[in-house]
Amino acid sequence: MKRRTFLRVSTFALAAGALAARAQEVHDIAPLVDAITHGASAEEGGIDIGLPAIAENGNSVPLTLEVPSPMTEADHVREIHVIAERNPRPAVATFHLGPWSGRARVATRMRLAGTQKVTVVAVLSGERFRIARKEVAVESAACLDEGSLR
Amino acid sequence: MMLGRVQVPPSVERGAVFEVRVIVQHPMETGFRRDYDGKVIPLNIVNRLACTYAGREVFRVELGSGIAANPYFVFPVVATRSGELAIEWSDDRGQAGRVSATVNVA
To answer: Which pLDDT tens digit goes with each residue over A19-42?
Structure first.
């Protein structure tokens, strides 16, 4: 093989490899949601998802979640699940709350492996479920720094 | 013992909701990164964090690798009585940590 050809081919291969590593696949999160709701249907909305519309850095994206609820013994939020469909592991976190929480509002910082839709499922007392989604544009994704140590 | 910090308001009224803020020092290794020798850095994340107050668990979170390094959480609790509020967590290697704060209920 001529040196020039070798260079051309290897450059192309490298570029293709880099692209493949960058393309995080979008997972089908339906099985995850079904595992939470046991196949029952979830009411759309009723969850305030606080996420920036554009996140500069996917390594740490501020997230606030609020589920309007009286948080009484009879009517309260039991769990809040966060699912990121384009993360290599879509199950991000599960929060457990109860009447002792007073209100259903939590905040954290999450990782996002690229622009995607974040899905939040709330489990309410009495086997009721809510589901909401929010789109986030990520400029510099998390989990793509393989081969480097920051 | 891992480092962490918890913050509660200096005093709260009985029956009022107060916010607890907690941060844990942890790299939350995803298992997808490699070191300079090209070896995979194994998965090691804080997988569980729980808060107990007034004799019961008042908050718990199961974490995935999608939680950012140095996990940070803010959550609400109803003030019932003065006493210790403790937060405990553990990671995939079995390392555990605990921090506590005193809640003053007026």
So the answer is: 444 457 899 999 999 999 999 999
- Domain of residue A75 covers 26-140
> Which of B68, B77, B80 is closest, CB to CB, to A111?
B68
The encoded tokens of residue B57 equal: 């668990």
Q: What is the mean pLDDT of residues B82-95?
A: 97
The answer to whether residue A76 is domain-embedded is yes
Count structural domains, chain A.
Answer: 1
Could you tell me the pLDDT band of residue A149, with boundaries at 50, 70 and 90?
very low
Alpha helices in A23-146 (DSSP H): 30-37
Q: Mark yes or no for CB contact B67/A100 under 8 Å.
A: no
**Mutate which of A105, A111, A112, A123 to disrupt the B interface (most B C-beta within 10 Å)?**
A111
Dihedral pair phi/psi, residue A21, rounded to 5° = -65, -30
